[in-house]
């Protein structure tokens, strides 16, 4: 179906907008000012029906959307049919994208987690709607599905778009990591930066990996039972910290195991979201109440360097050996000097 072009409009096609107040949430936690926790509201059902009825969505008060939709990979979701004809899936995708982008504040951003299959269509659609691409990031993981007939999938796209790239909320400092110059190369230039970045730190690159960035599988401490599509906490931590401020509203139309709401609330953002499965929503709500497993209020600074410190053991060992030799020589020299001193002292007393 041809789509209206260019502007970001609140769409009416995906569900009519009720007059008066919004629909009460299915699950709700109020904000907890004493502990700097944001409020959290879930609505259970199809996001296309529910989003137009959520007051913060209707009133365009959403600063950040994070969406990790079903990929149409025939996954055994609790309720959702994950095997639509491609044209229906795209129709569904464009509907929820329009609802979400239509809810953004003028400085708002949307992130979409999506595999190779659909990334191109989503990029084109968002551009047609007048949004600007800020980054096309890759989440790289090293534990995936084994294949022999082609290269193994080891990534998902994290598409970052904003309504206005100049006005958008952008907080680089809380997501910074140790630079390779600091972590690997001992390069003093990283400590004498002129771009305003703190010494030894950098904004992460657009390929994301590192400690805690693997898929949530097996006995991973973050793992929630009965959710096989759970994203790592650090992924949402990065997105939420850099693209929203405490007190702002974050929307996720596909709550799943609840990674977005648990991190949003813990970082003092308010959360609204939808989930098709009532069982998933209930489990996610429990998780939000329990809080995150890894993410802490203050950001942790880590390195994602893939090589060990430059020169590694060989060069360091050489320096160490040289120092030890010097110390030993110094000690020997010192002992000799002490003997000489004593001799001279005895002679002087005798004379
Ligand atoms: C890929 S999972 C999201 C995983 C989530 N990011 C996490 O870290 O746990 C997609 C979720 O969207 C839900 N879903 C599918 N279609 C939906 C729809 N039309 N409206 C709302 N939720 C839907 C599924 O039930 C599933 O829980």
Could you outline the blueprint of secondary structure elements for this entry?
Blueprint: E1 27-29, E2 40-44, H1 47-50, H2 55-58, E3 62-67, H3 86-101, E4 104-114, H4 116-128, E5 132-140, E6 155-162, E7 177-178, H5 180-183, E8 201-202, E9 207-208, H6 233-243, E10 249-252, H7 259-266, E11 270-275, H8 278-290, H9 312-350
Parallel strand pairs: 2-11, 3-4, 3-10, 5-9, 10-11
Antiparallel strand pairs: 1-2, 4-6, 5-6, 7-8
Helix pairs in contact: 3-4, 6-7, 7-8
This protein binds S-adenosylmethionine.
Residues 46-47, 68, 70, 77-78, 80, 227, 229-231, 253-254, 256-257, 259, 274-277, 280 line the site of S-adenosylmethionine.
Task: Summarize the structure in words.
This protein has 351 residues and is α/β, with parallel strands linked by helices. The protein folds into 2 domains: 27-290, Vaccinia Virus protein VP39 (Rossmann fold); 320-351. The chain has helices spanning 47-50, 55-58, 86-101, 116-128, 180-183, 233-243, 259-266, 278-290, 312-350, and strands at 27-29, 40-44, 62-67, 104-114, 132-140, 155-162, 177-178, 201-202, 207-208, 249-252, 270-275. The strands form 2 sheets. The chain has a 9-stranded mixed β-sheet. A two-stranded antiparallel sheet has the order 7-8. The radius of gyration is 28 Å and the shape is elongated. Residues 1-20 have low confidence and may be disordered. It binds S-adenosylmethionine. S-adenosylmethionine binds next to strand 11.
